[in-house]
Amino acid sequence: MSIRATRREETRQKILEAARGILESGDFEEASTREIAKRAGVAEGTIFHHFSTKEELIISCVTTQLAEAIEKGLYTMDPEWCFVDKLMHVASYRFTQIGLHPTLWNVIMRQLTFAPRKGAVHDMMQRSGLIKAITDLIEEAQLSGELNPDLSPTLIRKSLMALFLFTIHEHMSTQNFDCEDMCATLRELIEVQTVGLWTTKPEVAP
User: Closest Cα partner for 164 from 88, 83, 78?
Assistant: First the structure.
């Protein structure tokens, strides 16, 4: 990497760190880009050389930490584990991040829930590697016979992500950020889903 590229990356990281600091204080909505720039020690216009909007800055904050959690989860995973255990292992790293910085993630979840740009949340999951990581685990489990091979991996992933996000919202509402408790909630939901709700195929109304 050239000196110029190195300095650019260092500046970008300073801006991200400043933004995270403000996010953790819970004042991100009120904070101006001028305040973020001041904390980062850069000119206000420099922020927009790296991030097109304030929303993009939030998404980048999330993406970086999410990518770290996924990488650690995949790297420390036992390949002999069953699908649910692998999925829970990756999720535990994410829950740990939330537990360590609950105010930060409370603000982030609120911001992303009402993100004005269509596809913002999907972009975050794509860029962090989350979609690929979960899809790979699903396809591997389908090949091994653990999951129904006739179902679309994308559909399974969306269903699992819905349970994951519900778990986060559920624990945020009760202010319980204990990683083991969050994992227990998600595991129960996933086990219900993998076992199945129906004893017989339901007759769907036309």
Answer: 88
Residues with Cβ within 8 Å of residue 96, at least 6 apart in sequence: 69, 179
3-state secondary structure labels for all residues of 74-92: HHCCCCCCCHHHHHHHHHH
pLDDT per position as a tens digit, 66-87: 888 899 999 999 999 999 999 9
Q: Answer for the pair 155, 133: CB distance below 8 angstroms, yes or no.
A: no
pLDDT of res. 26:
66
**For residue 165, what is the DSSP state?**
H
pLDDT of 199 reads: 73
Q: Which of residues 29 and 100 earns the better pLDDT score?
A: 100
Query: What distance in Å separates the CA atoms of residue 23 and residue 35, rounded to the nearest whole number?
Result: 12
